[in-house]
Amino acid sequence: MTEPLISEFKKAFRGWFLPFKYNLERWAYALQRLSGIVVTGYFLAHIVETGNVVGGLSVWSVPSTDMARDIWTATFHFLDNPLFDTGLVVIGFMLAYHTINGIRLTLAEFGFLEGKASRPDFPYKAKSLSKPEQAIFWLSILFAVATAVYAINVFFGV
Amino acid sequence: MLLHYVTGLGIVIAGGVHLFTVFLTGPYLQNLAFSGGAYSVISVYRNIILAATLEVLLLFVDYHALNGIRVILIEFHQGEAWERGVSWILIVAGILLLIYGTRTILIANALA
Fold first, then answer.
1. Residue of A nearest to B71 (CA)
2. Structure confidence by residue, pLDDT tens digits, A41-92
3. Are B68 and A53 inside 8 Å of each other by CB?
């Protein structure tokens, strides 16, 4: 290492999530990474939560159905409050954005939707984000907002 | 990297089925009750196709999420010790999550 880890980490963090002076495609990728990390956190919590369907961490053989029912019902009651419901709305937004933008990234990786390379002329806009790709990006934002609105409707009845 | 894209597409399909059974087959609260509806928790685990879909979803999300974290961490810093440590910790975490989730699915499938 040529510089201390902390300042290397600060630079990396700014590069990952705060790409000022970069174009839309870079911001889309930053949000892709952020949403991926957030949803990974939810994945860990979800595996632990659904583990309570059979009774929790201590259960490694088939338990009595009544015990499993009680533990799961208690878990669900613990989680059925506005704070966690708001968290689920955020997770819905992140997951929907990550999915559709991920489809855009997969298509771009295999060469679909990219335009032809050409000489960079003023105003030197990056040609990697072609018109169809921009459309898919805005579609991903739209899908994410729609998912959040639907989730608010499901959880809060609004 | 290729596996990242393949598992991503797999998640769209398996995750779509999972979210469909939870949210779009009836009242959400009924689907999260232990039993009592066609798509309540135990009914879903007892259905062999839905349980298999959940297992596939677990496998794909496990790989996709932890490989994603690995990509980010290795982009941050490259070096023999760092790369080996990051990969080893994430592989172990992935296997533990897979074991715990598979246990849930198998036991719930066998619940009376």
1. A33
2. 999 999 999 999 888 888 888 888 888 888 998 998 999 889 999 999 999 9
3. no
